[in-house]
Design a protein that fits this description.
12 helices, alpha/beta, 2 domains, 280 residues, 19% strand, globular, Spore Coat Polysaccharide Biosynthesis Protein SpsA, Chain A, single chain
């Protein structure tokens, strides 16, 4: 087991960015106001919209990484120095309650990763947000959005992360659990996520399809089918939980897997070139 020393002296916080000028200022301001900060580290994918100017204004150390998202996450941990580090999305604003809620888990030797729920604007399909909360309460969450994690455990995942462009948070979470640590989801809203999941998740599923094709080749079809079957099972459980038979939600979930399939069938050469460039 890794050391169980707490994070009472402050933690390194890291944010991955790519053209996030609209939200990055408020994101970094919330971090500085609400987290006992040791160092603030930005890993940027080549922003051209003023994101870096905001980052330097808030005293962030900026490094550049244009590789796949899995490699970005590894570089973020590599650039940090504290035992516990926080991954905060560039469009997430942590609340004052975030640190008091997560920090005491750093004293628990069996915990490796901890995160909370997020507030968000209610989109066109509020049932989808409720569905995501239902899954998180029932099965836990795996996301680098407002996430405290043991740095050493992320660094152990180098080979697993290098060829991944989506679902990198799940890769790390599985590794943490395999090492005998817990991934803790706090069922409280500890931040605001400034995006519409209903609009952004199709692209996330597209990237997931690309990543599955890159990692598994055509055999990744089986992995996609298993994921789809699990989602349908959870949709059915959600219907029983709410007492409603929600066809609109099922149609939207089908749309997500349509985009995953499009990503899977797309030309993987762009991702391969990013992977090759990252290994040079």
């Amino acid at each position: 087991m890794l050391s169980s020393r707490g994070a009472d002296r402050g933690i390194d916080v890291t944010v991955a960015t790519l053209n996030n000028a609209r939200t990055i200022g408020r994101c970094l301001e919330a971090i500085r106001e609400n987290v006992p900060l040791s160092r603030l580290i930005i890993v940027d994918g080549g922003s051209r919209d003023g994101t870096i100017e905001f980052a330097t204004k808030y005293g962030a150390h900026v490094v550049y990484e244009r590789g796949l998202l899995g490699r970005v996450r590894y570089v973020q941990a590599q650039q940090c120095e504290t035992e516990w580090i926080a991954y905060v999305d560039s469009d997430v604003y942590v609340y004052k309650a975030w640190w008091p809620e997560v920090q005491h888990y750093t004293e628990m030797p069996n915990v490796g990763m901890v995160l909370g729920f997020a507030d968000a604007e209610i989109g066109k399909l509020p049932e989808y947000d409720a569905f995501l909360k239902y899954r998180a309460r029932k099965f836990g969450a795996e996301a680098f959005s407002n996430t405290l994690v043991r740095r050493g455990l992320v660094l152990e995942c180098e080979s697993e992360l290098m060829g991944v462009h989506a679902g990198e948070d799940s890769v790390v979470a599985r590794h943490i659990e395999q090492r005998g640590y817990q991934v803790v989801t706090i069922p409280k809203k500890l931040c605001f996520h400034d995006r519409s999941v209903i609009e952004t998740h199709p692209h996330a599923y597209f990237r997931s399809g690309q990543s599955i094709r890159l990692s598994n080749g055509v055999g990744g079809i089986y992995r996609m089918v298993i994921s789809m079957r699990t989602t349908v099972r959870d949709w059915w459980g959600f219907n029983r939980h709410t007492g409603r038979f929600n066809i609109a939600l099922l149609v939207y979930l089908g749309k997500l897997y349509f985009w995953m399939m499009i990503g899977f069938l797309s030309d993987p050469s762009q991702l391969k070139s990013k992977l090759i460039e990252a290994t040079r």
